[in-house]
From TrEMBL:
Highest taxon listed in the record's lineage: Bacteria
Pathway(s) the chain acts in: Cofactor biosynthesis; thiamine diphosphate biosynthesis
An MF annotation (GO) of this entry: thiamine-phosphate diphosphorylase activity
A Gene Ontology cellular-component term: cytoplasm
Keywords, comma-separated and alphabetical: Thiamine biosynthesis
Organism: Paractinoplanes tereljensis
Pfam families, alphabetized: TMP-TENI
GO BP annotations, alphabetical order: thiamine biosynthetic process
Name of protein: Thiamine-phosphate synthase
Role of this protein: Condenses 4-methyl-5-(beta-hydroxyethyl)thiazole monophosphate (THZ-P) and 2-methyl-4-amino-5-hydroxymethyl pyrimidine pyrophosphate (HMP-PP) to form thiamine monophosphate (TMP).
Lineage: Bacteria, Bacillati, Actinomycetota, Actinomycetes, Micromonosporales
The Thiamine phosphate synthase/TenI domain, residue ranges: 7-169
Length: 197
């Protein structure tokens, strides 16, 4: 099972500095390895069409849909309260803010790792090391406030499989450059950590 790693982009069309498709395309050019389609408030047909368009920007299997309906594909990311999806989904993630209580999920996002301007007052911030302790052996993505190379590197050094980024890329005037900076810092720190083990 391939689980998300590297820089995982979460969409938010309301924060996007341009059209959502353009911002995502630029982030993918900058090194976003996976995309989680949020936009849960869109009507079903519109959201499904958006999923189809986003899949065209990514390697096969790299679009994950937030919620239990994979919108015609086979990867979902669930909120803490979402039910498990019906059969036929091969990759399942779940958002967690504490010790993951999982059944068949393949990975989790833990948040907030750092204080975040996207959700001010949301927290308290876990910090990378405490998030790693909460995750235990579960593959995890660091979410929340990962908006600098230093923070990306700290997450890698703590053992995160990847960083889940929304606001820093969605709001950026240069989504490609911001993505490349964060993805490069994370990758270098992860490689360095692996070399020390």
């Amino acid at each position: 099972m391939v689980t998300p790693s590297g820089l995982v982009l979460l969409t938010d069309r309301r924060l996007a500095s341009g059209s959502l498709l353009d911002v995502v395309a630029r982030a993918v050019r900058g090194g976003a390895a996976w995309v989680i389609l949020r936009e849960r408030d869109l009507p079903y047909a519109e959201r499904r069409a958006l999923a189809v368009s986003l899949r065209e920007l990514l390697p096969p299997g790299r679009l994950i849909v937030a919620g239990p309906d994979p919108l015609g594909a086979d990867a979902v990311h669930l909120a803490e309260a979402d039910p498990l999806p019906v059969a036929g989904v091969s990759l399942i993630g779940r958002s967690c803010h504490d010790v993951p209580g999982l059944s068949i999920e393949d990975y989790v996002t833990l948040s907030p790792i750092f204080a975040t301007s996207t959700k001010p007052g949301y927290g308290p911030a876990l910090g990378p090391d405490d998030a790693a302790l909460l995750a235990g052996e579960v593959p995890w993505l660091a979410l929340g406030g990962v908006d600098s190379p230093e923070r990306a590197a700290a997450c890698a050094e703590a053992g995160a499989r990847g960083i889940a980024v929304m606001g820093a890329v969605m709001r950026a005037a240069d989504p490609e450059g911001v993505t490349r900076t964060l993805a490069t810092a994370f990758g270098a720190a992860r490689a360095g950590s692996a070399g020390r083990r």
